[in-house]
């Protein structure tokens, strides 16, 4: 198991964990995309849009990563490496009998339709399968969010089911389509 935070690159993107220096960029991302993201995310408390909240979240993400519980990445373009254009989160990381986790992601409204999320996820999924040695990654999306469903299909995620009233999104229970991607090259880690 590797607990060094990744710095992933693709042709156009940089993916890395946030530091406290990124707090203003995180706030800019969420404030700029607040109306766009609200229909697809849990209701946010007022503190969510404050620097103090995000300083705590950055520290928490680093702590969780150091204990193998989550990986929360920010997406930047190589051309503008200080502006966050998206987020990728792997959470509920389990090892032992599962070697599994859950994937969540978001992209800024102005960067949709350019293939950034598919490009970023290819790199992040490869990291989770090869370095973190996950066997299964689950990702779920609301039926009305076909853009997200299309991204997952392009990456090879397979639909496994339909969950009614699955998550409380923007104050309402929302159905979700359940998908997963399996690591075809998984091997038992030597330290297991």
Would you write up a description of this structure?
- By secondary structure, the chain is of the alpha+beta class.
- The chain has one domain (7-182): Aminopeptidase, CATH 3.40.630.
- It has 5 helices and 8 strands, in the order ββαααβββαβαββ.
- The protein has helices spanning 23-32, 34-37, 51-66, 116-130, 146-154, and strands at 7-9, 13-16, 71-77, 84-94, 100-107, 136-141, 158-169, 172-182.
- Helix 1 (23-32) crosses helix 3 (51-66).
- It starts with 6 loop residues before the first strand and ends in a 10-residue tail after the last strand.
- The mean pLDDT is 95.
Secondary-structure map:
Elements: E1 7-9, E2 13-16, H1 23-32, H2 34-37, H3 51-66, E3 71-77, E4 84-94, E5 100-107, H4 116-130, E6 136-141, H5 146-154, E7 158-169, E8 172-182
Brief sketch in words of this structure:
The protein has five helices and eight strands, in the order ββαααβββαβαββ. The protein is globular.
CATH superfamily: Gcn5-related N-acetyltransferase (GNAT)
Instruction: Please give the number of β-strands.
Output: 8
- Give me the strand/helix succession: EEHHHEEEHEHEE
The CATH class turns out to be: Alpha Beta
What is the helical fraction, as a range of percent? 25-40%
Tell me the domain tally. Answer: 1
User: Roughly how many Å is the radius of gyration?
Assistant: 16 Å
**Strand adjacency order, main sheet:** 1-2-3-4-5-6-8-7
Judging from the principal axes of the Cα atoms, what is the shape? globular
Number of helices: 5
Mean pLDDT: 95
- Label the structural class: alpha+beta
Strand content: 25-35%
């Amino acid at each position: 198991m590797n607990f060094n935070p990744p710095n992933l690159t693709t042709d156009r993107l940089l993916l890395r964990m946030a530091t406290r220096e990124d707090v203003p960029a995180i706030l800019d991302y969420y404030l700029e995309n607040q109306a766009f993201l609200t229909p697809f995310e849990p209701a946010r408390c007022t503190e969510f849009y404050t620097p103090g909240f995000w300083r705590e979240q950055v520290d928490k993400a680093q702590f969780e990563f150091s204990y193998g519980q989550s990986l929360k990445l920010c997406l930047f373009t190589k051309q503008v490496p200080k502006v966050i254009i998206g987020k990728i989160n792997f959470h509920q990381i389990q090892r032992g009998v599962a070697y599994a986790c859950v994937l969540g992601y978001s992209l800024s409204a102005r960067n949709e339709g350019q293939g950034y999320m598919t490009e970023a996820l290819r790199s992040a999924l490869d990291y989770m399968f090869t370095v973190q040695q996950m066997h299964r990654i689950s990702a779920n999306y609301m039926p009305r969010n076909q853009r997200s469903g299309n991204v997952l299909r392009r990456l090879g995620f397979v639909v496994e089911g339909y969950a009614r009233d699955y998550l409380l999104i923007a104050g309402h229970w929302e159905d979700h389509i359940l998908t997963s991607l399996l690591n075809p090259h998984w091997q038992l880690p030597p330290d297991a």
